[in-house]
Amino acid sequence: MSADSEPRHRAALEQLADAVLGAVEQAVDPDGEHIESALNSIRNRMVEFVRRYNRLQVDVETEVLDSPVLFVANHGFGGILDLNVMAVAAAFEDLHLDRPLTFLTHQLAWTIGVGSIVEHLGARPASRESARAAFAEGHHVVVFPGGDLDAAKSFADRNQVVFGGRTGFAGLAIEQRVPIVPVVTAGAGESLLVLSDGERLARAMRLDKLLRMKALPVSLSLPWGLNVGTVGMLPYLPLPTKLHTRVLPATTAGPDEDAGAYAERVHTLMQQALTEMTQNRPLLG
């Protein structure tokens, strides 16, 4: 990071902190009248944060979308607080979409009691029923098929798209007769050091059974230092890694293509894009 960019990064952090504190003050209004506007304010500020602090670059390669589609995206690190989620939100702004978005979100948000909050931002529990309802309402639907497996990748695997063999998103697209638009983001895996995805630890603690969590990452970050599991659930101070998002062309299933083959083809397209974006990439972009 150059000397002249340091004040700009510090200013972006200070502006984000001020905006979040102000929005939280609104959100705790006893009448609850300001919750949605406060959350939208936080989201908008975080999108602006990644545009400036993370020097987000968005490349749109798809045509105008005039009917519902299934957006399929990859995680960087973390869940709702993943930089990739903010980068994808910025990309949607650049697309100037003509209909609402529904984000399919891990059930954990409702398990820990924040589901009703993120619903104000367009989130619904990740299920085929939620997706069907959203499409029936004419919405676009956004899914991160890799879930916690993709969101908890180690630093060594930061440039891999991990779906863990999941194909439900492809079956959903075939069933609903909607195209898939892949959205690929690079860089968030450099915002902290993830030492291990913690899959064995999650199994040992039976988190896969209790919370549907298959990973419990061990990470080193600011300000939490060495931490197990909570970074990504709680905010952390990301390193100023450059983010790059590509919205790839829409693709549809072939006439004889089943969900497994379709999912594998989409995964291959996304992995090829991510490999191209990170080839010869310096640390922190």
Write the layout of secondary structure elements.
Blueprint: H1 5-27, H2 35-52, E1 57-60, E2 70-73, H3 83-95, E3 101-105, H4 108-111, H5 115-118, E4 123-125, H6 128-136, E5 140-143, H7 147-151, H8 168-176, E6 180-186, E7 193-196, H9 199-204, H10 207-210, E8 218-221, E9 225-228, E10 244-247, H11 259-278
Parallel strand pairs: 1-10, 2-5, 2-6, 3-4, 3-5
Antiparallel strand pairs: 6-10, 7-8, 8-9
Helix pairs in contact: 1-2, 2-3, 8-11
What does the model show?
There is one protein chain. The chain has 285 residues and is an alpha/beta fold. The protein has two domains: 1-53; 56-189 and 242-278, no CATH class. 40% of the residues lie in helices and 15% in strands. The chain contains eleven helices and ten strands. The protein has helices at residues 5-27, 35-52, 83-95, 108-111, 115-118, 128-136, 147-151, 168-176, 199-204, 207-210, 259-278; strands at 57-60, 70-73, 101-105, 123-125, 140-143, 180-186, 193-196, 218-221, 225-228, 244-247. Strands 1-10-6-2-5-3-4 form a seven-stranded mixed β-sheet, with helices on both faces. Strands 7-8-9 form a three-stranded antiparallel β-sheet, with no helix packed on it. A hairpin with a 3-residue loop joins strand 8 (218-221) and strand 9 (225-228). Helix 2 crosses helix 3 (83-95) and helix 8 (168-176) crosses helix 11. The chain starts with a helix and ends in a 7-residue tail after the last helix.
